[in-house]
Amino acid sequence: MKAGFLPVVATCMSWTLAFGCASLGAQQPDAPAGISPTSNDPALTIRNQKALESFEPAANEEYTLGPGDEISLDFPGRPELASKSTVGPDGRITLPLVGPIHVAELSRTDSGKAIADALSKYYTDLSVTVKIDKYSSNRVRVLGYVQHPGEILFEETPTLLDAIGRAGLISPTVSKDGVATNVGTGIPEMCTIFRGNDTAVQVQLRTLLMSGNSLADMRLRRNDIVYVPQPKELFVSVLGAVTKPGNVPLTPESTLSSILAMAGGLTDGAGSSPNIRIIQPSTGKDFKVSYKKLMTLAGQQEFTIHSGDVIIIPKSGFENFTYVLQKISPIATIVSLAALVGAG
Questions:
Q1: Signed CA dihedral, 101, 105, 110, 112: sign only
Q2: In this model, does residue 175 exceed pLDDT 60?
Q3: What CATH number should be reported for the domain holding residue 154?
C-alpha cells in the first residue's frame, strides 16, 4: 500500500552496502547485520507493530516528481512551448528561456505553477500541464534473502508484497530424503522497512498475512529500503516412540499434534495413551501432556511450542526412568534419550 528508491543520504548508503555484504547470512536483530550506529549516525527509530498505520502513506497521497522522472510539458494556447524534460539528479529541469527550475518533490500541479512563475516575465496568463511519461524515480530497493536483490521501478504506488514478490522469494530446497537444505517457507516471517536515515519499522509479515491484515501489503514510499533477513532455522526435536524421531521444522502454524504427525505418528510401543513430555530450554519448563487430551480440540489449543523444544514420547513403562535422568541434568536427559532411542 505505499511507494519508491534513489540515492539516500551518505549514512543510509553505508547501511545499504552493509546489507549487501550480510544479506544471505543475516540473522534477525532489530536491524540487519552490519548496522551499528556510531556517534555520527542517527540512532534508528524502531517503531512497533501498532505504529504501522502512521508509517504507511495515505492511499490518496499525491505523487511528487523525483530525479529521473521523464515529463511532458503542455502549454494550453501556446503549442510552440510544448516540450519534454527529464528531472535531473539535482531535482531540476532546464527550459531554454529561463534555465534550471526546481521541480523535485513537487506535485504535477505545483511543478506546473513553478514553471509558469519562471516564465511569467515572458508570458502572461500562462498555464502549464505536467504529464509524467516515465516514473523513473519511483523506486524501492529490496535487499537480503531474495533471488534478485536491488532496486525495483514502479509505475504505480509500490506495496510491500509487490516489492518482495518482484525481488523473488526463495523457496526451500528439499533433498531426495525430504530434508530441507535451506530454511524458510517462501513468505518471510518478517522484514524491515528503512525510510530515510533515521526511521525503520519491523513488519511481522507472515503473521499479518495469516491474520488477513491488509498492512501485510502496506504502501511504500519512494526510496524505501526493504530488508528480508535469512530465515532462522526453527525446529523442535521429537524423540521416543514415534516413527521418524529427529528434528521437525517449526512454523507459526505448527501445533503439538501436527508436529507428532510430521514425526510419523506414535508407534505401538507408546501404548494407548502416553503422557507426552515437553522440555522447553527457552522457558525452563518441563511438563507432561496427556495424549488423550491432546486429541481433543481444547487440548490442541492449550499448548504453545517453542523453537528448540524437546518432545519425548516415552515407550510404555519407560517414563519414570527418563524423569530420574531429568533430575540429574536436563542436558543429560536429552543426550541420553537420543542415544537410547537410537539404540532401540
A1: positive
A2: no
A3: 3.10.560.10
Q: How do beta strands 275-280 and 191-195 pair?
A: unpaired
Range of the domain at 112: 70-134
What residues contact 10, with CB distance under 8 A and at least 6 apart?
none
Decide if 2 is inside a domain.
no
Residue 161 burial (C-beta neighbours within 10 Å; 0-12, 13-18, 19+): middle
Per-residue pLDDT at 244: 87
Q: Please say which residue of 82, 103, 134 terminates a domain.
A: 134
Q: What is the CATH number of the domain that holds 110?
A: 3.30.1950.10
**272 and 330 share a domain?**
yes
Residues 55 and 151 in one domain: yes
If asked whether residues 150 and 182 sit together in one domain, one would say yes
One domain for residues 188 and 219: yes
User: How far is the C-alpha of 86 from the C-alpha of 226, rounded, in Å?
Assistant: 27
Question: Which residue type occupies 301?
Answer: Q
- pTM for the whole structure: 0.55
Which pLDDT band, with edges at 50, 70 and 90, does 234 fall under?
A: confident
- Radius of gyration (C-alpha) of the chain in whole angstroms: 29
Same domain, 258 and 333: yes
C-alpha cell at position 197? 536515515
